[in-house]
Design a protein that fits this description.
about 190 residues
Length: about 190
């Protein structure tokens, strides 16, 4: 992606995380990104284009920070890969906070915006399938039911993330709850 487009999408994620989707105004986004409104319209056509691309941007960014590892680290077991991918969504970094907040704002706005709802449903399905594949790797004999387990885990993670971001629980407690759910889902898949 071009540097200017990335700069605009980073700014859009910040604005959405702070002000919500309704608070995203093209002129304010331009100011946040340090570009002209014309450049935003050139790259994204309209506000809906900005929202769609921002959703894709935060999904891609999450994929990076949940899978990046030092190449010198020893390989992970399939269960460790699964835990790593999910638990890295609960990190106290600006990038994770911003991504999680923006995702929550996009999800809340999708209740009233059919176009955004469809885009969010597709992005969620991609995430659920990725987690299902990790579950399938950890329990290869239970791939048929791993999709439902992945839906439960990703839904739980979204809820835990919102509770953590809003100060309702701590990250260590959220991680403990998520680890317990991963264990329970893997145990359930093992019985399938």
């Amino acid at each position: 992606m071009a540097a200017r487009s990335t700069q605009i999408l980073e700014a859009a994620a910040r604005v959405i995380a702070r002000r919500g989707v309704r608070g995203l105004r093209v002129d304010e986004l331009a100011a946040e990104a340090g570009v002209s409104t014309a450049l935003i319209y050139y790259h994204f056509k309209d506000r809906t284009g900005v929202l769609r691309q921002t959703l894709e941007f935060i999904s891609d960014r999450a994929a990076r920070y949940t899978t990046d590892r030092d190449p010198d680290d020893p390989p992970l077991t399939p269960r460790q890969e699964l835990e790593n991918a999910l638990l890295r969504e609960l990190q106290d970094t600006a990038e994770v906070r911003e991504n999680s907040s923006a995702w929550g704002e996009l999800r809340a706005s999708a209740v009233f915006d059919e176009v955004l709802r469809d885009d969010l449903a597709r992005a969620t399905l991609v995430w659920v399938r990725e987690v299902a594949a990790l579950l399938g790797d950890a329990r290869p004999t239970a791939s048929a039911s791993s999709l439902a387990a992945a839906e439960r885990l990703t839904a739980l993670l979204e809820g835990l993330s919102m509770r953590w971001l809003s100060g309702g629980i701590t990250i260590p407690h959220a991680r403990e709850l998520l680890r317990g759910a991963i264990g329970a889902e893997l145990a359930g898949l093992g019985q399938g």
